[in-house]
Automatic annotation (TrEMBL):
The keyword Membrane applies. It comes from Actinacidiphila cocklensis. The lineage of its organism: Bacteria, Bacillati, Actinomycetota, Actinomycetes, Kitasatosporales. Residues 14-458 form the Major facilitator superfamily (MFS) profile domain. It is a multi-pass membrane protein. SUPFAM superfamilies: MFS general substrate transporter. One of its GO terms (biological process) is response to antibiotic. This is MFS transporter, DHA2 family, methylenomycin A resistance protein. It holds the Pfam family MFS_1. Signal peptide: none annotated.
Length: 470
């Protein structure tokens, strides 16, 4: 029975379309990893160019997530979601046709902006489509399970596509996915009312984007030993960050929620989310370069080599949900960070010593279980620690900092590697090993801070996939 004022009971294809759009956005974060060597060979460029091909996406995605939720409220979540999917499909087609690496970088930033439009609006659509809490919880479970599937599929799909048709295929695959998504969400059921009174601080958002992009540029330039470039970008990033802080202090609709940032224990959880993003995306950037350019793996072989890390993300979140529901999120967060530390250290040791693949696989498996323990538990912890009425803002900030961590992971760890057919050179292997050990140190520091921080409330032992309070 449909109550007055409520959306009609949606058909299953509406939820399928929303989940498929989310899958497309997340797949694009990992599918490019195994295409890096083929991309470098086809378009040329240095490690810095490849770093920007990855971080162009995550910089725009992470920075714009800060205001994307407010934009969904202001313009209507269904409009923002459909527009984001359409731009993502068209942008992917242009990426596949790119003739230069820096053209691709710009287009990847466009994809990141489109992704930022899709993610919070998809959650708002599910909330509107399923007003009944029990049905909504099941719908959110389907939506969230897609993230593990996308991560698991990314390297395999990327390897197969690159092996069959080259790097351009990893973008062409998005076009039919976007078209199918738009067809599935075209019905009247997928609709949310707009709130024109909802304010967005466009200047503050632009300054946040500038500060993040310039800071990333400074890190990438320092990795290439371009010190003048580094100094200029670092100074500009500090200036943009200062202007952003001044703007935030005076804004009536700040980009960052001060109440969320000041919540006891929140800082440690946000830092942990950034550390997970740093390690996961950094590993996905540096290891394919090692496996293909230095150890002679094919693109398909590289995708298969990542299975020990990606498979746990497809099934282990279900176990994590049960654990969090019973004991709260703190234990799984710490366990996940410790597993990530051990996994990155084992991968670094395997690369440094030239050990058989079995040791590398063990490290990848530990990292995969670490991610799948930490991220669902961190999501629950952030929502539980948020002040009343600020769960949505807390979730948006958490996801933005995950993308910031991913950006920093590629920028920092990428500084340790070289691009080129230097197969069998120990120097390159030691560079990748050093990068992996840095990732281990970052996760160890995050684990220590989380262990010393405030315990999350016992009522945080709620289902991981429960919808955020509004």
């Amino acid at each position: 029975m449909v109550m007055p004022g409520m959306s009609p009971d949606p058909k299953p294809y509406a939820l399928a379309g929303i989940a498929l759009g989310y899958f497309m956005v997340l797949l694009d974060m990992t599918v490019l990893s195994v295409a890096e060597p083929d991309l470098a060979h086809a378009l040329g460029g240095s490690v810095a160019g490849l770093q920007w091909a990855v971080t162009g996406y995550t910089v725009a995605f992470g920075a714009l997530l800060l205001s994307a939720g407010a934009a969904a409220d202001r313009f209507g979540a269904h409009r923002l979601f459909r527009g984001g999917v359409a731009v993502f499909g068209a942008g992917s087609l242009l990426c596949a046709a790119a003739q230069g690496l820096w053209t691709l970088v710009v287009l990847r930033a466009v994809l990141g902006a489109a992704a930022a439009a899709c993610v919070p609006s998809s959650m708002a659509l599910i909330t509107r489509l399923y007003p009944d809490p029990a049905r909504r919880g099941r719908a959110v479970a389907v939506w969230a399970a897609v993230s593990g599937a996308a991560l698991a599929a990314g390297p395999i799909v990327g390897g197969l596509l690159v092996g069959l048709a080259g790097w351009r295929a990893v973008f062409l695959v998005n076009v039919p996915i976007a078209a199918l998504t738009l067809a599935l969400v075209s019905g009247n059921a997928v609709r949310c009312p707009a709130a024109p009174a909802r304010r967005i601080d466009r200047t503050g958002q632009a300054l946040a984007c500038a500060a993040l992009a310039l800071g990333t540029d400074a890190l990438i330039a320092s990795g290439g030993r371009h010190w003048a470039h580094t100094a200029w970008s670092c100074g500009a990033a500090i200036a943009a960050g200062g202007l952003f802080a001044l703007r935030e202090a005076r804004s009536t609709s700040p980009v960052l929620s001060g109440a969320v940032l000041r919540a006891p224990g929140m800082g440690a959880m946000l830092l942990a989310g950034a550390a997970v993003g740093f390690t996961l995306t950094g590993v996905l950037f540096v290891l394919p370069l090692l496996l293909q350019q230095h150890l002679g793996y094919s693109a398909v072989g590289t995708g298969l080599a990542f299975l020990p890390m990606t498979l746990p993300t497809a099934f282990n979140p279900l176990l994590t949900g049960r654990i969090v529901a019973r004991v709260g999120p703190r234990g799984p967060v710490l366990a996940g960070l410790c597993l990530l530390t051990a996994g990155a250290a084992a991968m670094g040791a395997a690369v440094w010593t030239g050990a058989p693949y079995a040791l590398l696989a063990a490290g990848l498996a530990a990292a995969g279980f670490g991610v799948s323990f930490a991220l669902p538990a961190l999501t629950t912890a952030v929502i539980a620690l948020a002040p009343d009425g600020a769960a949505g803002a807390a979730g948006g900030l958490f996801n933005a900092l995950r993308q910031l961590g991913a950006t920093m992971g590629v920028a920092v760890l990428g500084a340790f590697v070289t691009v080129g057919p230097h197969r069998g050179t120990g120097r390159a292997d030691h560079g990748v090993a050093g990068a992996l050990l840095v990732a281990a140190a970052v996760c160890a520091a995050a684990a220590a801070i989380a262990a010393a921080g405030r315990r999350t409330p016992r009522d945080a032992a709620a289902p991981v996939l429960a919808p955020a309070r509004r």
